[in-house]
Amino acid sequence: MAAFQYSDLSKMIDHSLLNPTMTVEQLEAGIQLAIAYDVGSVCIMPYYHKRCAELLAGTTVAPSSTVGFPHGGNSTRTKLFEAEQLIEEGCLELDMVSNISAVLSGNWQLVENEIDAIVKMSHAAKRRVKVIFENCYLNSAQKIQLCKICCHVGADWVKTSTGYGTGGATMEDLQLMLDNVQSPVQVKAAGGIRDCDALIKVRDMGVTRVGSSRTSEMLDEARRRLGIPAIEPIKSAPVGSSY
Question: Is the pTM value of this prediction over 0.90?
Fold first, then answer.
């Protein structure tokens, strides 16, 4: 007997619709796929977020989108404007990219001030924030310092990667992040979690969210193991990404 229920896995997934080459038809199909599989959220390109939120209204799938994606190099003012617009459109979870250049330069005050500003704005509107580190570019000390900052300012998740850097989530990075955050801060994996076994493994470690465009493959296998009927294929399946 499986040691999980379907929703234990499906609600971990932020279905990623961030590939810049995706067409409107593919975005629409991706949203319908997320609804059919009852995932945690749809993380979609900001320009299409409003439509996504409209389609997800009345479902148990949250609309989510990105701030400063994918490089984090926008000014704080620009990131705040992005966050404000998403909040106005009904975004429930904002995935913001930390300023990678500032992290690598050791400008921790800028990094903390920016994350703090986004978190304060979002929490005032009862939204949640995931802070993306882009671990492939960072050393362990930098990752730990980001964890400390996120705990200090009250971010809701720390997230390994955008899925569009030179590497995604690794088990070593996930464990390091889990070891260096305290509840209620959670850990999200992005990039590299590509099958049901990997999803179960990171869940058992304590990871609560996974960004993926391979939702159907992972959850079809979960349904098969649980003896749940398969979901009919969604027309115009989304294109893949580095997730």
Answer: yes
Q: Tokens for 108, please give them.
A: 């921790």
C-alpha 169: how far from chain center: 12
Is residue 188 annotated as part of the catalytic site, yes or no?
yes
Task: For residues 11-20, give the mean pLDDT.
Answer: 97
From 95, 143, 156, 173, the catalytic residue: 95
Q: What is the H or E stretch that residue 27 is in?
A: helix 24-37
80/86 Cα distance (integer angstroms): 10
Is CATH 3.40.50.300 what the domain over 6-226 is classified as, yes or no? no
Q: Which residue ranges make up each domain of the chain?
A: 6-226
φ, ψ (nearest 5 deg) of residue 165: -90, -160
Residue 236 banded pLDDT, cuts 50, 70, 90: low
Has 159 been annotated as catalytic? yes
Cα–Cα distance for residue pair 166/163, rounded to 1 Å: 8
Query: Which amino acid is present at 104?
Result: L
Q: Can 95 be counted among the known catalytic residues? A: yes
Dump pLDDT digits (tens) for 39-51. 999 999 999 999 9
Question: Mean pLDDT across the stretch 129-153?
Answer: 98
Q: Which residue has the tokens 């001030």?
A: 113
| Tokens representing residue 74 in the block | 């926008």
- Single out the catalytic residue among 14, 79, 159, 173: 159
Which of 50, 130, 143, 188 does the annotation list as catalytic?
Answer: 188
The predicted-structure confidence for 58-69, as pLDDT tens digits, reads as follows: 999 999 999 999
